[in-house]
């Protein structure tokens, strides 16, 4: 039951995960695509193929992702949660901080630009923004959810800018409602088309933005704030290849 009039409380990851498991049959798909042949991308230093690509060249990076998907016959590729990534080295957004940031806090779903994005759980628009720095989210929407007294947020990054027009904070959103579309480069932060999906328990005062990549030194702290989004996505990642 969504009730924004009653007092809300932020919770830790463990309690939120328990709550989401309890309502898992009511959660709607974020993307309505065929995950039956989904593949998992390896975006770490262990993937030798990445060493042959200029990752700051979005066309080359996109061609690599598409070739991987074509080889596996996949309509979607999955970028893992809590992955120590090499792909951020070319962006000052991540390397210009001390310590630099490289731990991924969401799940990426690499699909065709324009693919519709849906709210998995009822809520309301908390905030939105166009985060235009190179390597950033580009157009971003954050939804606020309230299950009983439990408050949490979901973030959708790398969207099409068309969907920000007409949005308003506190705008109600139904479970299963289309809220956005996957953006294309360069408007989406200059990345190959994909959705960054993230769960957040504490926005720490931010609006329209939140860290999607953490420093290794803050890994445990940030993972506690941002639990595994697969609790909502319900993807069989272990069997994806």
Topology overview:
Elements lengths: L8 E2 L2 H10 L16 E3 L16 H15 L4 E3 L12 H4 L5 E4 L2 E4 L5 E3 L4 E9 L6 E10 L2 E8 L14 E2 L4 E4 L12 E7 L12 E3 L3 H7 L4 H4 L8
Parallel strand pairs: 1-9, 2-3
Antiparallel strand pairs: 3-5, 4-13, 5-12, 6-11, 7-8, 7-10, 8-9, 9-12
Q: What is the count of structural domains? A: 1
In the CATH hierarchy, the third-tier topology is known as: Glucose Permease (Domain IIA)
What would CATH call the homologous superfamily? Glucose Permease (Domain IIA)
The tally of helices reads: 5
Note the main attributes of this structure.
single chain, 241 residues, alpha+beta, Glucose Permease (Domain IIA), nine-stranded mixed sheet, two-stranded antiparallel ribbon, 5 helices, 13 strands, disordered N terminus
Structure description:
This protein is of the alpha+beta class and 241 residues long. It has one domain (9-239): Distorted Sandwich (Glucose Permease (Domain IIA)), CATH 2.70.70. The protein is 17% helix and 26% strand. The chain is built from 5 helices and 13 strands. It has helices spanning 13-22, 58-72, 92-95, 219-225, 230-233, and strands at 9-10, 39-41, 77-79, 101-104, 107-110, 116-118, 123-131, 138-147, 150-157, 172-173, 178-181, 194-200, 213-215. The strands form 3 sheets. Strands 1, 2, 3, 5, 7, 8, 9, 10 and 12 form a 9-stranded mixed sheet that branches. A two-stranded antiparallel ribbon has the order 4-13. A two-stranded antiparallel sheet has the order 6-11. Strand 8 and strand 9 form a beta hairpin. The N and C termini lie far apart (37 Å).
